[in-house]
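Late entry, written up from scratch paper. The run itself happened at the end of the previous shift, but nothing got recorded in the book at the time, so transcribing now.
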Amino acid sequence: MKILVDADACPVTRIVERVAARHKIPVLLLCDTNHVLRSEYSEVKVIGAGADAVDFALLNQCQKGDIVVTQDYGVAAMILGKGAYGIHQSGRWYTNDNIDQMLMERHLSGKARRSKSKHHLKGPAKRTTQDDDRFEDALERLITRGVSG
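Output as recorded:
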């Protein structure tokens, strides 16, 4: 098992590394040339800046039993198909039971954004310590679940 992180502007990379180090799990941070990262713990792979290049590289590296941290529902759907586990930076697990609903919500949100309506959707709320704690707890539980089977 390894943990792969879609690390472009990901607010939880240090939490992932801290949890992974406790469990002695290797971490691979994937980012494009616009978000070059450095890490004492993780292997960092810088991918070309093409559209979805990081997503495709992550999918190529992902294997059954791995854990993937991503906020991209499309990537999540594909890693589930490979038998990997997925987790959003909010701490929500991606599962075969919820991914279709999440993809539909993404579709409807995109449709609303593209409409010529005067209704503007707010962006996400500012990240809090509670958000970080919720993510860390969810990742711990996912690792335990993945290790035990």
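DSSP finds five helices and six strands in the chain.
(Scratch paper discarded after transcription.)
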